[in-house]
Design brief:
heterodimer, A: mainly alpha, Rna Polymerase Sigma Factor, Chain: A, about 0% strand, B: 2 helices, about 60% helix
Chain lengths: ~170, ~80
């Protein structure tokens, strides 16, 4: 399969996954482009041990997690910059919630839910997003995360417990 | 957990129609960058080799003091050019 065919077959999948991780249209578009650059660069190294879809999901998930880690670093750095240099908070480029798949009437509730999900540990967040938003079967989530089905089940259980606590206490 | 049911309300979104053009541009840029990195690396290696060669030459020359070199090469140190 050539790169163009792969792109048109999976662009929607990658873009929506990035959108659900980053919750910002502009960032999701940038991330989608970078994911496909990576796919293009590593296409020859794809061994076919997993399905192409699983491999693409893995690249996209890892790329989004990298972006979120760099956002966290940026936030920490911004905190220290403000603390020691008295910089304005606006100078920090942390993107706002801009998810085109969310209709206006659900926006507040979903923004709140995403905020809580963003505070979960990376693997719990990934399991939750793949299972409940991407609507993937547990077997596929396990393949993407390179875990056993049981491990995914336990991750989902813990994610739901943590989320319930956070939603109950109104923690941000 | 009913909060997770909210996720079902999220609609799938179509990406920008120009996305492929942008991806192709990024791939081209990445390839050009790799080439320019390659040339920079080759230049640096060539310069490094030149410096090492110079240092080695200087050290070899130091190992033969001038007097020994003159003797080895049978050179005459006088200004007398003709035998009279």
């Amino acid at each position: 399969m050539d790169f163009e065919t792969i792109f048109y077959q999976y662009q929607q999948l990658v873009f929506n996954l990035c959108l659900n991780y980053l919750q910002n249209k502009h960032d999701a578009e940038e991330a989608t482009q970078d994911v496909f650059v990576k796919i293009h660069a590593h296409m020859t190294r794809f061994e076919g041990k997993s399905s192409l879809k699983t491999w693409i999901y893995r690249i996209a998930v890892n790329h989004c997690l990298d972006i979120l880690r760099s956002r966290t670093r940026q936030k920490r750095l911004g905190f220290f910059t403000r603390l020691f240099m008295g910089e304005d908070e606006k100078s920090l480029d942390i993107p706002h919630f801009d998810h085109p798949g969310v209709v206006l009437e659900d926006r507040e509730a979903l923004e709140n839910l995403f905020q809580k999900i963003n505070t979960l540990p990376e693997n719990q967040r990934t399991a939750l997003l793949l299972k409940y938003i991407e609507d993937l079967p547990q077997r596929e989530v396990a393949d993407i995360m390179q875990l056993s089905e049981k491990a995914v089940e336990s991750l989902l259980q813990r994610a739901k417990q943590n989320l319930e606590k956070k939603l109950g206490s109104g923690e941000g | 957990m009913e909060d997770l049911e909210l996720f079902k309300k999220i609609k799938r979104v179509e990406p920008d129609p120009y996305l492929f053009t942008r991806v192709k541009a990024k791939i081209r840029f990445a390839a050009e960058e790799r080439i320019s990195w390659g040339w920079s690396l080759a230049g640096s290696l060539a310069f490094g080799a030149l410096v090492v060669f110079n240092v080695l030459t200087m050290q070899t020359q130091r190992a033969y003091p001038e007097a020994t070199l003159l003797q080895q090469m049978n050179l005459d140190t006088s200004n007398q050019l003709y035998d009279e």
